[in-house]
Automatic annotation (TrEMBL):
Residues 272-303, 321-461 form the Nephrocystin 3-like N-terminal domain. This is NACHT domain-containing protein. Residues 86-240 form the DUF7708 domain. Gene3D superfamilies: Tetratricopeptide repeat domain. It comes from Cercophora newfieldiana. Keywords: Repeat. It holds the Pfam family DUF7708.
């Protein structure tokens, strides 16, 4: 065995693309050696030096073939020659692929070569035999079987290797491919071993057929086929996961955007400037110290007054700022040798709604997600998405979050990328919120200490308080002389680039040296002003009169340009600057032109008010203080400091009266423009509403139903107004006129056009933008005034206009019921109007059937929604009938969209199977749920939520049978494995899967399983309390499950604590009285009583276990008495309480009939009325035993037992499984 070692087990193998391909290559050999063989003779040994990537060129394969041919003692027969020719022709199809695979995927060289060598060995045996026996060519031979199998295997190797290359970062794909390759090795080794054991010669087919070797090889062959399918399944799943991750990332990016200031163009960085910074002693000290703590670059009071905007930097081109400190930040981003560079400046923070620190955190998270991969790989990216998604589920946008909620996501992301990122925070002193600055500085200082090699750079003016808040930082004061040299260098090159300025070179440089004050932008504006001078005298005059400081420069430009403008032009200029100051993103020329032309909500813009040549007009009125992007016609202020100047209070350097702007007034003007546009008469068209609603509600039938109806073309400003009007309203001052304008919009038909338009425009097609607008309006500070609130009509948000249009639509107009459907969707998402929603669903179902016909796709969808709704209301028998009928019709009706039709029918089938499950028709439920899952898997794929929900329901039915616990646990774990990485642990489906794991582990028994169950249950309870609150039935179900587990463990104190989370009957009654008829989370009174009854049964068990049996008996008797007095409504929990009471009475030795009378009134005679006369004890005993069967979900056993007494259960509701999260089973 010299020179060879057994392939060792592999632990911690990196299966990502960055890992060694040979670590993956060894995985199949390890699986074979440790799992697929116990025979030491079959163990595969690895040659020393395997990591040197051995190759197997095609020439070796052909040489081996020639060797076999030359080794025969006689020529082959014609029959064999023909077969060999066919084999080689077939094999030749794969030679090129094999050669490519060997060259590009050397880790599978041995695998490919093994398959080919096996074929050639058996072919050589065949060749030898046919040279001896001329009749052998007419007989089937083992070589034919080997060739066919190897041909199939080569196909599978090629496909599997491609899947691995596409999804190398997915451990499941890598594992599946490894196991497939291990079985291929298994086939090759066993086939070769069979040949060796037969004497390395010709093996007749008759000896092979029926032999143990054939059976083993056939089994391995089947396993190879199964694993090949598994590889394709995992690759498909990985592809869907990637698609889902990309969609989630896009959603998260959209969620982060509102918190981020828009980027604007800036002056390009001048090469050769700022190089002094890396030669500074403080910078060297910081670098030599491993970048421990932040580097704080600070200026001196009065230097670098005006700053620039956000810049997220992946390369430095076009990311430079225009003033000293920002120029330094840009230079540092250019010279950083880390993979990621995050550069942020606070200049735009005051112009945005969110807290400035939120914008900083959002910009970092945005770049990480935008890059397409996390700092450390796919898993870290998924964790980041999970963290951010938890906030997304709670807030309409990142701008609504608190800084202490967002920053931990940043810390976790950056901590995972030590030595791989540079974070530059510029102009922090421009943030006016001192509390936020202090918090951020403390966190940056801590991050610099905690993350090895973290490169955190803070650039600001010098502040004493910053010094105290950054005790771990390295201060680097700006070298004033070096900055002045940088500015002089910039100006010198500008003069060199403009020959007309060379005569003034010395004068210009002298002026800059004396008065630039370290401001690059000031120097650039002066140079631009001089370049446009027509004569030398004008150059001298402009140079002499050019003011010192940016504020005076802005004031001079506005004043001088105002002298040549007419009054009307001055007003138009003020309007343009106001719109640019308020805009949430840069506006286009077309949008600005439309905005200035709008006058009121009811009068369309007059063609005479629209700018004829908007580009030329804006340049004429606003130059040089605005820029127009040649790529997209976006209009921007030349610098953020101009915005600060325009919004500055009265002082030494303020704009003229005609340009006096306040932030609130700017937003009020923009709010009026947006609402004016949304309320235009063109958007009050019923035909437009008809078209939009049909397209949104009936996408599969929109073309047929909307023939001749076209959605009107809207102005380009409409999209901006649609997504921002509420933001501007919320930032406006209290204004009755604006409130009245908003009120007319919220109550008019134009609101419907807007709501349906954003539904269509928003990627994902949901009501998110509508709900965000509602939240913004409710947060408007003016809403504190009652008269403002009343004028806006916000109390009728969405419901008012939709209900109003219903009154104008005829009863036989399908549009009426499409609008009603949309109203029901809003009720479900935004308002706890569960009874109203139920009435809407029923009405839509009935009317759509009458108008469109019972087989129409929308009718069937409406009926299916109604069936699902009554399923949630525990009307299981009715739901069963409706959903079965809908499924039958859907299955037999052709759909305009086959995929959509298939999806709908299998969702209906899944709900139908769920209705059966709750009635304990478990065998039927499992069969139909399996069929629904298979259909949804084929239609939607393994990562789709509808498929996973069907799998969840299947697992619950399997669990209910009690003898399929392992199958149920495997499904729960699979859902958890797929769903949590894409979303989070506190997403609804994930929590259902996790609590399912807990309940199955509890039923499996054993202390280890019970400990795991408690861990899962505790985490779900914490998540549900945070997400849903304590006044929620699913939270109560989790508490009840944990209480039952504590009872199993003997932890009675903890059990009492969990039971305290379930409301008492008194609390339920009080909640009903406060908000009848629905309870606190929208479920009806009966659903909460289920939880109360079960809690009392558990509480009685706790009393009994702690020596208070008499109290337990008294409490249960009172519970059953109250339930009977209230009408004796059926409840599975009451059945449980009866069993607990009977067991307690029996344990105390009470009379038999006293024990059995706990079950009085539960059954009746099959032939008529309930008559319990002779044989009452027998009947009650049978009823008690039947109750045990029912609580074990053995409906058949219970019914058979009662039939022996000619009895049946009186109320099926007594044993139905209630809707729950899931409902606790004790």
């Amino acid at each position: 065995m010299t020179g060879q070692t057994v392939v060792p087990p592999i632990s911690g193998v990196d299966l990502t693309p960055t890992g060694s391909c040979w670590e993956l290559a060894l995985k199949p050999w390890q699986i074979f050696n440790t799992e697929l063989t116990r025979d030491p003779k079959k163990i595969i040994y690895a040659r020393k030096g395997i990591a040197r990537h051995p190759t197997c060129p095609l020439s070796d394969v052909l040489a081996a073939a020639r060797e076999y041919a030359n080794g025969s003692r006689a020529g082959p027969t014609p029959g064999f020659r023909y077969k060999m020719q066919v084999f080689l022709q077939n094999a030749s199809r794969y030679f090129v692929a094999i050669d490519v695979m060997v060259q590009h995927s050397p880790e599978i060289t041995a695998l490919v070569w093994g398959c080919i060598r096996l074929c050639l060995m058996f072919a050589g045996d065949r060749l030898t035999q046919e040279s001896r026996n001329q009749t052998a060519a007419q007989q089937p031979e083992i070589s034919d079987y080997i060739a066919d199998t190897v041909t199939s295997i080569m196909d599978q190797i090629g496909r599997s290797e491609k899947y691995y290359q596409l999804h190398a970062a997915c451990p499941r794909v890598c594992s599946a491919v490894s196991r497939l390759y291990a079985q291929i090795i298994n086939f090759v080794v066993r086939a070769a071993e069979f040949r060796k054991n037969r004497g390395l010669g010709y093996i007749p087919w008759a000896i092979f057929v029926g032999s143990p070797a054939e059976k083993r090889l056939r089994r391995v062959e089947m396993k190879i086929k199964e694993l090949s399918i598994a590889v394709e399944y995992e690759a498909h799943l990985a592809f869907q996961e990637r698609q889902t991750e990309e969609a989630n990332t896009r959603q998260l990016l959209e969620w982060l955007k509102p918190a981020m200031p828009p980027a604007t163009p800036s002056m390009s960085w001048e090469e050769g400037t700022c190089e002094w910074i890396c030669r500074h002693q403080s910078y060297r000290t910081w670098a030599q110290g491993g970048h421990a703590g932040p580097l704080w670059i600070h200026g001196i009071p009065g230097a670098f007054i005006f700053l620039l905007d956000l810049a997220i930097v992946t390369n430095t081109e076009g990311a430079c700022s225009g003033c000293g400190k920002s120029m330094i930040a840009s230079y540092l981003s250019k010279t950083a040798d880390t993979k990621f560079v995050f550069s942020y400046t606070y200049a735009l923070s005051e112009s945005q709604g969110p807290v400035p620190n939120i914008a900083l955190a959002a910009s970092i998270l945005f770049q990480v997600l935008k890059s397409g991969a996390s700092l450390t790989g796919t898993q870290a990216s998924r964790l980041l998405c999970q963290d951010v998604r938890q906030l997304l589920n709670r807030y309409p946008s990142c701008a609504s979050c608190r800084f202490d909620e967002v920053w931990p996501c940043v810390e976790k992301t950056l901590s995972s990328a030590a030595h791989d990122f540079t974070l530059i925070v510029d102009a922090l002193d421009e943030c006016r919120d001192a509390n936020h600055v202090q918090e951020l500085l403390r966190r940056l200082d801590a991050l610099g200490k905690q993350v090895p090699g973290a490169r955190i750079i803070i650039v600001s003016r010098f502040r004493d308080d910053y010094k105290k808040l950054l005790p771990g930082s390295v201060p680097l004061p700006v070298d004033t002389a070096a900055v002045s040299s940088d500015i002089l260098l910039f100006v010198q090159r500008e003069v060199d680039r403009a020959p007309a300025l060379k005569p003034l070179r010395n004068t210009i440089l002298g002026r800059v040296e004396e008065e630039s004050q370290g401001m690059f932008l000031w120097a650039k504006m002066m140079m631009d002003c001089l370049k446009t001078a027509a004569t030398t005298n004008t150059q001298h005059e402009r140079l002499r009169r050019f003011p010192v400081g940016l504020g005076p420069v802005y004031d001079q430009f506005l004043g001088e340009s105002g002298l040549r403008l007419e009054e009307q032009e001055i007003q138009l200029r003020a309007q343009i600057f106001s719109l640019l100051v308020a805009a949430e993103r840069p506006l286009s020329l077309a949008e600005l032109s439309q905005a200035v032309a709008l006058r009121s909500t009811s009068i369309p813009p007059s063609p005479g008010d629209v700018l004829i040549n908007p580009g030329a007009t804006i340049v004429h009125l606003c130059s040089p203080l605005v820029s127009i992007d040649a790529k997209d016609d976006r209009v921007r202020l030349i610098h953020h400091s101009l915005r600060e100047f325009l919004l500055s209070p009265a002082g030494t350097a303020t704009p003229t009266a005609s340009l006096r702007i306040t932030n609130e007034e700017a937003h009020r003007r923009m709010a009026r423009v947006c609402v004016n546009l949304l309320c235009q008469p063109a958007f009050a068209s019923v035909a437009l509403i008809d078209s939009l609603v049909r397209r949104n509600v009936l996408p599969e039938d929109a073309c047929a139903l909307t023939q001749g109806v076209e959605i009107s073309k809207v102005p380009s400003l409409y999209e901006y107004a649609s997504f921002h009007w509420h933001i501007h309203v919320a930032l406006s001052p209290a204004d009755e006129n604006l409130a009245g304008q908003v009120g007319r919009f919220l109550t008019g038909i134009e609101f419907i056009a807007w709501a349906e338009a954003v539904f269509h425009l928003r990627d994902g097609h949901d009501l998110g933008p509508v709900l965000s607008a509602r939240a913004a309006l409710l947060g408007w500070h003016a809403m504190r005034h009652v008269h403002i609130r009343e004028r806006t009509g916000v109390s009728g948000f969405f419901t008012g206009p939709y209900q109003a249009i219903l009154e104008s639509l005829a009863a036989d107009n399908i549009l009426r019921y499409l609008v009603l459907h949309r109203l029901g969707t809003y009720f479900n998402l935004a308002v706890e109007e569960h009874d109203s929603r139920f009435q809407i669903i029923r009405t839509v179902m009935e009317k759509s059937s009458a108008i469109l016909g019972p087989a129409h796709a929308f009718t069937l969808r409406s009926r299916a929604e109604y069936g699902a709704e009554i399923l949630l209301r525990e009307r299981f028998e009715e739901a069963e009938v409706i959903l079965r009928d809908v499924y039958t019709t859907q299955s037999s009706s052709p759909s305009p969209s086959p995929a959509a039709g298939t999806e709908s029918q299998y969702v209906t089938l899944s709900n139908y199977a769920t209705a059966l499950h709750h009635q304990l028709k478990l065998d039927e439920s499992i069969a139909y749920q399996q069929k629904a899952s298979e259909g949804l898997l084929q239609a939607l794929g393994p990562a789709d939520k509808k498929y996973l929900k069907s799998q969840l329901f299947l697992a619950q039915a399997l669990e209910a049978q009690n003898h399929h616990l392992d199958d149920a646990l495997a499904i729960y774990e699979k859902i958890w494995e797929v769903w949590v990485p894409m979303y989070s642990r506190d997403e609804g489906l994930a929590m259902f899967a996790q609590i399912g794991m807990a309940t199955v582990l509890r039923k499996k028994g054993g202390q280890l399983n019970l400990n795991k169950a408690m861990q899962h249950g505790t985490e779900v309870l914490e998540n549900r309390r945070r997400v849903f609150g304590e006044a929620n039935s699913m939270t109560a179900d989790t508490a009840l499950t944990l209480a039952a587990m504590c009872l199993d463990c003997g932890e009675y104190g903890r059990a009492r604590g969990y039971l305290s989370l379930v409301p008492s009957q008194l609390e339920i009654g009080a909640a009903d009285a406060a908000s009848p008829p629905a309870n606190r989370d929208g479920n009806d009174h009966r659903i909460w009583l289920h939880r109360h009854y079960l809690a009392e049964a558990l509480r009685a068990s706790v009393h009994h276990q702690t020596g208070k049996t008499e109290k337990a008996i008294a409490d249960l008797r009172q519970l059953l008495g109250n339930a009977d007095a209230a009408g004796g409504s059926g409840s599975r929990a009451l059945l449980q309480a009866r069993l607990v009471l009977s067991d307690l009475l029996e344990a105390q030795g009470r009379p038999k009939m006293e024990v059995l009378r706990c079950f009085s009134g539960l059954v009746e005679e099959v032939n008529g009325a309930n008559r319990l006369v002779s044989g009452e004890q027998v009947i009650l005993e049978a009823t008690r035993q039947a109750a045990r069967h029912l609580l074990s979900n053995r409906l058949g056993a219970a019914e058979m037992l009662l039939e022996t007494c000619n009895m049946r259960w009186r109320r099926k509701e007594d044993y139905w499984i209630p809707i729950g999260g899931p409902f606790a089973d004790i």
